[in-house]
Amino acid sequence: MKIKLLGIDLAKNVFQLCALNQANKVLFNRTVRRAQLRSTIVKLEPTTIAMEACSSAHYWGRAFEDMGHQVLLVPAQHVTPFVRGGKSDARDALAICEAAERPGLHPVPIKSIEQQDIQLLHRLRQRQVQHSTALANQIRSLGREYGVIFPAGIKSLIKRLPEALEDGSNELSPVARYALADQHRCLIEVRQAMKAFLLQIEQLAGQHPAYVNLLPLPGIGPMVASAYIAAIGNGNQFKCGRQVSAWLGLVPRQYGTGGQIQLMGISKSGDRYLRTLMIHGARAAITGGMKNNPELALWVQPIIDRQGFNKAVVATANKMARISWVIVTTGEAFDMKQAFKPVA
What residues pair up with 16 in beta bridges, in sequence order? Predict the structure, then answer.
C-alpha cells in the first residue's frame, strides 16, 4: 500500500487520517487516537503529510519531519473551499489532501522551537498589555463615580492614584480606597510583568543574526524586530519582499470585474499582530523621527502631500516589511540613503 499523500485533521484527542495513492484514490480515511498517532506514522514509509496550519500543527510537523516525512502546513482558508457536503472529520481530512495538491500553494513554514518561544512571549506580553489597559480604564471610571479624575496615561495614573487615596478631602469611601489601592497594586504588578516579558524577548531574539541588523530601521524596535523574526523565520518561504508585504496585508485589496480593477483599502490578511506592530512603528517613525532622518522625510513627505498621512504610514510599513525581508534573507546591513530615495 503505497501512500502518496496523507492528510491529517488535527484535534485534541481524535485525529482523522486520509491517505491517497498515486491515482489520487482514497486508501483509507480513519480515526486515530492521540496515544496511537506517533506509532501509526512511524510505521509508514516516508511520504508527504499535509495538515492545516492550526494549533499544535508546528509541533506535529517537527515530529513528522524527524520521522523522515515531508510536511506541508496548508493555510486553513485554502482548505475550506474543498469541504464537500456537511462538515465532518473525514471530509475535512479529504479536503486537506485536495488543497495540498493545488498548484501554486504557499505552505506555512514549520516554526522552530526558538521562533515559538519568541512568539509565546509576545502573546503573553500582549495579554498583559490588554490587562493593563483594562485595569487603568476601570480605575478611572470608578474614580469618576466619586468625583476623582485621573489624568490620561497609565504612568500618570500610577503616580496620581496614591495621592488621591491619601487625600481626605475627596469623597472616596473607605471601601473605595481599599479597593482602588488593591487595583493599584495589581496594575503595578502587570506593568512589571510586561517589562520582564520584554527583557526575555530581547534576550531570545538577540540570538538571531538578523535581529541587530533590523533595529536601525525606522519604526523597527525590539518588539517589531523580534515579532518579525518569530513570524517569518529565515524568510525563504517568500520569493521577494512584496510577497511579505502582501502576506501581512499591507497591500491594496483588489476588486475586478469586466476588465475593470478597483484598488481598495489594505487587505488585512496574514499576521494581524505583526501588521499592527509595523503600522504603529511606521506611524511613530513618521511623527517623531523625520527630523533625525532627512532621507525618510524626503521619501515620505510627497506621499503625505498626495495621499494623506494614514496612507503614508501604511506605505512606510510596507517598505519596512520589504527591507526587513532582504536583511533577514541576505544578512545585509541597513543603509538609510540607499533605502529611502526621494519619490519622483
Answer: 9, 31
Residue type, 60: W
pLDDT digits (tens, 9 = 90+) for 150-203: 988 999 999 999 999 999 899 999 999 999 999 999 999 999 999 999 999 999
Per the DSSP assignment, residues forming a β-bridge with 49 are: 6, 71
3-state helix, strand, coil in the chain (%, to 5): 55, 15, 30
CA distance 1 to 118: 41
If you search the block for the grid coordinates 512511524, which residue do you land on?
42
Burial 99-122 (b: 16+ CB within 10 A, else e): bbbeeeeebbbbbeeebebbbebb
In whole angstroms, give the CA distance from residue 193 to residue 189: 6
Give CA separation, 326 vs 246, 283, 323, in Å: 15, 22, 5
Its pTM stands at 0.88
Whole-angstrom Cα Rg for the chain: 25
Number of residues that make up the chain = 344
How many CB atoms within 10 Å of residue 245? 26
